[in-house]
Design brief:
Elements: H1 4-13, E1 20-23, H2 30-37, E2 44-53, E3 57-64, H3 74-78, E4 86-87, H4 90-97, E5 117-122, E6 131-134, E7 141-146, H5 147-156, E8 162-164, H6 166-171, E9 177-180, E10 199-200, H7 231-241, E11 245-247, E12 254-256, H8 258-276, E13 281-282, E14 288-290, H9 291-294, H10 298-302, E15 309-314, E16 317-325, H11 330-340, E17 349-358, E18 373-383, H12 386-407, E19 413-416, E20 428-436, E21 441-452, H13 454-458, E22 463-464, E23 470-471, E24 474-481, H14 483-492, E25 509-513, H15 521-537, E26 542-544, H16 552-562, E27 566-570, H17 572-577, E28 579-584, E29 590-594, H18 598-623, E30 625-627, H19 631-639, E31 643-648, H20 652-670, E32 674-675, E33 686-691, E34 712-717
Parallel strand pairs: 2-6, 3-5, 5-8, 10-32, 13-17, 25-26, 25-27, 30-31
Antiparallel strand pairs: 1-7, 2-3, 2-4, 6-7, 8-9, 11-12, 14-16, 15-16, 17-18, 18-24, 19-20, 19-33, 20-21, 21-24, 22-23, 27-28, 28-29, 31-34, 33-34
């Protein structure tokens, strides 16, 4: 049998240190295990079943302790045609996994060197921010590690798991297969039941059924849906109940409440300082543009035309000509550039404006991610040489990556868009691409465009060079929007609500006094005030929740929902011991800290939390990046919710073919005829970027779709 020491040694080799390791009496049942670790071991307790089918072989199912496993639903869930699953006997379990009955754990795959057992993980166990409690191959111990660490461990031992939605399967809504190792798994259904003539609505790659993912006996004041079980409902509740968003009576427009606007201000301050280091200055241009100017660059405006909102009336009368509300500002700003640029001495011009934009999309809007009005910054610059312009494009891209990774703790992939996906009217587009593991979809984070001389020619912008000759400037444009907030929420949030990275959290710590009878509340509040003052002196944004009409438990839930990084609990015993209990929002780790060192400890924890949130998110994202050399392997890995890197010939016609074939195959698998045109997201797979960091491409490698010689690695995925 495998020893605890062998398991901890294997974990340590991967840099994994359990956040808790509890020794207890042998726990032969789930109930006994839960009782043994109550209040001692954080995370979701893992229930394990080893099942077998004569043809399909052995499967280890690791699920939430409260999950229902329907043996009749397993064939469809696991993609085994005509399977007849039964529980495996203990002798076979011990032979293949090296553990005794009652000690089964997903960590036991370290003993399955022959790959005889297929690991299936409940997708909620490895959702963003998840922590799991499991046996280290013996039922006299339980340890806690993150879901991302569990994924890293099993993958390192050659067991790429199938991630399955057991909750959906138990609810009877069909195939619950999810992200993770695709090989041999059934393709997840990409759509729900046909609506209005068999059109599939592609919300979230198929969208959960009504009521899916709803927690039992959940309070209406909290989050009623799980992130893994019903991502759209979860997201809507998180952003509303955390007081980020209020819905408005015009579809696609939303009220940004102070909690979200404060985060946007943190992003604005950070990026504004960055762009000013390279000589960019802020300005403001009108939001209205005449039809003549808007149509001046037809190639550029073609992509925006269906989304342009027009003002046609003033009071009761019609305007002489319609006026557009800016969808972007090239056609507004560049006529002014023509007036300002005459000589090489006038260059470079580097302008940025923080403003709003209106794009009247008809597709289903989603707060932050796809809205009809949004806030952004747009930079517009003009340069004397192409080399100077190209340098700036990449400088700005690095700034955008820093917003996501340094501020929001969200990993991104930097790359260049294909010709098909580049900004209309530009020479080339660079991008930072984020990934939402819970949806299995990528999302474009921000773009920096090299416009070349196209707009200069269109708007007749010329300057006299140092050699006395007329020349056209090289221009760039670049932008980042409030979409950043939605990405942050979806990457880090959990079933309790927001989980905010400390650097952007409006409040980094909240102090909750625990009041009791016969306690001097005045003295307690005075101590809270002194603690808050010391923390502010150390640069920590802190608030004392001294509301007397709510009990401490209610306050804990409220601030957890809002995602405040640290909760500080001060009770009578803490005051007597001159200490305070510190609870981390991301891991729920608790620590009693002496008041004398609290400012330093809190500051250190915030830095540590910021770093660890990015590391966990990157580890999770990386587990969803796969390579494929053939179409069949490509579609299997896409179906498993991955981003897929392929060798590609980089020809437009084959990019169109991939979109067409991938959508057709997804619809066929779902038994649908067509997508709903109103769907916000598509079943089609598209190129995300040609990554700047990619493995070497051996000469002669064929393109996965055309068979022609590949010229680059290209990243593909379903996208928001």
């Amino acid at each position: 049998m495998t020893s605890v020491e062998a398991v901890t040694s294997a974990l340590e080799k991967l840099g994994i240190k359990p956040s808790a390791m509890v020794e207890h009496d042998a726990a032969m049942t789930v109930e006994a295990g839960l009782q043994a670790i109550e209040g001692k071991c954080p995370g979701v307790f893992v229930k394990n079943l080893v099942v077998r089918d004569k043809k399909a072989g052995l499967f280890l199912l690791s699920v939430r302790h409260d999950a229902k496993v329907d043996m009749k639903a397993l064939p469809q869930l696991l993609g085994v045609s005509g399977g007849n699953f039964r529980m495996a006997d203990s002798a076979l379990m011990t032979e293949k996994l090296g553990v005794a009955q009652g000690s089964v754990t997903p960590l036991a795959v370290m003993n399955d060197t022959e790959g005889a057992v297929r690991l299936v993980l409940d997708k909620t166990l490895v959702a963003d921010g998840a922590t799991v409690a499991l046996h280290p191959c013996t039922n006299t111990r339980t340890c806690s590690i993150s879901g991302a660490e569990l994924l890293a461990f099993v993958n390192s031992h050659g067991h790429e798991p199938l991630l399955a939605d057991f909750a959906a399967a138990a609810a009877g809504n069909g195939n619950g297969g999810g992200g993770g190792g695709g090989g041999g798994a059934a393709k997840p259904k990409e759509g729900g039941k046909p609506k209005e003539g068999g059109k599939a609505k592609a919300a979230g790659g198929g969208g959960p059924t009504k009521g899916a993912g709803k927690k039992e006996n959940a309070s209406e004041k909290g989050i009623e849906y799980t992130k893994a079980g019903n991502l759209p409902k979860w997201y809507e509740q998180v952003i509303v109940k955390s007081e980020m968003i209020e819905f408005y009576d015009i579809s696609g427009c939303y009220i940004l409440r102070p909690w979200s606007f404060s985060i946007w201000e943190a992003i604005k301050d950070f990026l504004d300082a960055k762009i000013k280091t390279v000589g960019v200055t802020n300005c403001y241009f009108p939001m209205f543009v005449s039809e003549a100017k808007l149509q001046a660059e037809k190639d550029h405006i073609e992509d925006f035309a269906p989304e342009v909102a027009w003002v046609t009336k003033s009071g009761d009368g019609d305007l002489n000509e319609p006026i557009a509300i800016r969808p972007t500002s090239e056609t507004i700003m560049y006529p002014a550039f023509r007036s300002w640029i005459h000589s090489h001495r006038d260059l470079p011009i580097k302008l940025n404006q923080w403003c709003n934009v209106v794009r009247w999309e008809f597709k289903h809007p989603t707060p932050f991610l796809r809205t009809r009005e949004f806030l952004w910054q747009e930079g517009h610059t003009a340069h004397a040489t192409k080399e100077e312009a190209d340098v700036e494009v990449l400088q700005i891209l690095e700034f955008y990556a820093a917003v996501y990774e340094e501020l929001l703790a969200v990993p991104v992939i930097k790359g260049r868009k294909t010709e098909k996906e580049k900004f209309a009217g530009g020479d080339y587009t660079t991008t930072v691409e984020a990934f939402i593991p819970a949806a299995g979809r990528a999302i474009q984070g921000a773009t920096s465009h090299g416009l070349g001389q196209n707009f200069g020619k269109m708007f007749r912008i010329e300057f006299e060079g140092a050699d006395g000759k007329k020349a056209i400037p090289w221009q760039n444009s670049w932008g980042l929007t409030t979409r950043t907030l939605g990405v942050m929420v979806m990457v880090h949030g959990d079933d309790k609500g927001l989980v905010l990275p400390p650097r952007v959290a409006p409040l980094q710590a909240v102090i909750v006094p625990i009041t009791m009878k016969d306690v001097d509340e005045g003295a307690q509040l005075k101590t809270c005030g002194e603690i808050a003052a010391a923390l502010r002196e150390a640069g920590v944004r802190v608030h004392v929740d001294d509301r007397s009409n709510y009990n401490p438990g209610w306050k804990y839930s409220y601030w957890e929902l809002k995602g405040v990084p640290l909760r500080l609990e001060l009770g009578p015993k803490d005051m007597a011991k001159q200490q305070i209990r510190v609870v981390r929002r991301d891991t729920n780790d608790k620590e009693d800290v002496p008041l004398s060192i609290l400012p330093q400890k809190a500051a250190l924890l915030l830095v540590q939390m910021q770093h660890e949130m990015l590391a966990r998110a990157r580890q999770t994202r990386d587990s969803y990046v796969a390579q494929a050399l053939t179409w069949e392997d490509f579609m299997a890995k896409i179906g498993a919710g991955n981003l897929v890197l392929t060798p590609y010939c980089n020809e437009k016609e084959f990019e169109e073919l991939v979109k067409k074939r991938s959508k057709e195959e997804a619809l066929a698998a779902a038994g649908e005829e067509a997508e709903d045109d109103r769907a916000a997201i598509s079943l089609a797979v598209k190129t995300l970027c040609i990554p700047y960091e990619a493995p070497p491409l051996p000469d002669g490698t064929p393109c996965f779709i055309s068979g022609k010689p590949a010229v680059c690695w290209t990243l593909w995925g379903r996208s928001y």
